[in-house]
Amino acid sequence: MNGKIRIGINGFGTIGKRISLAVKKQDDMELIGIVKTKYDYNALFAKNLGIKLFVPSEEHIKNFEKSEIECSGTLEDLIRECDIIIDSTPSGIGAKYKQFYENNNIKAIFQGGEKSSIAEISFTAQVNYERAIDKNYVRVVSCNTTALARTLNTLKDYANEVYVSVIRRAADPEESDKGPINSIIPSFNSHHANDLKTILQIEITTNAYVVPTTLMHIHDINIELNKKISVDEVFYLFENTERVLLLDINDTAKIMDHSKNLNRGLSGDLYEVAILKNSIYIKDNILHYTQAVHQESIVVPENIDAVRAMFNLCSKEESIYKTNKSLGILKKDYSNNHSMEKQESRILV
Ligand code: NAD
Predict the structure, then answer these.
(1) Is there a contact between 46 and 71 (Cβ–Cβ < 8 Å)?
(2) Cα–ligand 1 centroid distance for 52 (angstroms)
(3) Percent of residues, the chain, with pLDDT higher than 90
(4) Which numbered atom of ligand 1 lies nearest the CA of 16?
(5) Burial status of residue 346 (CB atoms within 10 A of its CB: 0-12, 13-18, 19 or more)
(6) Per residue in 86-120, pLDDT tens?
(7) Residue of the nearest CA to atom 32 in ligand 1?
(8) Residue 314 annotated in active site
(9) Beta pairing partners, 48
């Protein structure tokens, strides 16, 4: 492949707009355009960023006729200019597009709301980058699965059985029409365990509880150990795991507030899974830790790495390094460091 990989993004919502911003920061990729169904403040955001806007089909062009936004064509036109489409349409809509991508002979990345059968493999960069090399269809797993994959991949050799309570945010911040407003809704033996097994072989059971918050998910993780490990060793392993951050903060509102200080991506984006430092303890043969997941941004770096793997541009290590550097992904805890000057100089090293 000569030159930059030309990328089109179908669906410009929570995930799609963040991937678009990340693509614009890569020196080996070029954002050709995005697909929007209708005119709204996100369409205006794309225009203000100088991103070309396309529509799914001719019938959607009328949705932009009375707006100040010029439509550059349909998805089919966009595909003609691209090497790959990153599909970030709502859950289940990606499946409807699969045949269209195949018919147009274009590679595609799907998101975690789609069934795993939509793609040749499910993907998290640290776990199985190599399996995505030269593939045509890859699915980046969901926010919850990405977070579980990152930390459990590090501890898998110590794990007999893993038991996780997933405390799920009810909706993303802008989804004002979703609930619950005043309830906690469980699902026992939730799908998260099986989803994780599409990329990581580990014995795991998950129960999920939807709670009335929009900020983050929390995972309360208990690992039944098959061999001895100390808390210090767990710290050491996590400190040396990419895209995992040990934080001295204990609640999701403060973690999000801290993330805004970092000033990356869209306000408050936290690409790393945040492990609450003081949650790590070992009792008998059970290791416990709690992690927080910024659902809106954690999968963004994975989409960038998936592109590099699918075009066999470089090794896993090189791709993760390039993505981390371009997005300012951290390896240190800055939550107790009040010197922004110092912080900024460390972020991009
Ligand atoms: P979203 O609803 O915020 O955005 C989807 C966008 O696609 C919207 O702009 C919508 O107007 C547009 N769209 C709808 N129908 C379309 C069509 N036919 N053609 C083109 N565009 C269309 O959704 P999202 O939260 O960004 O989720 C996208 C995918 O990412 C889903 O598979 C989801 O499961 C997954 N995901 C979401 C999160 C999250 O927390 N939001 C986290 C990880 C993965």
Answers:
(1) no
(2) 19
(3) 92
(4) 26
(5) middle
(6) 999 999 999 999 999 999 999 999 999 999 999 99
(7) 113
(8) no
(9) none
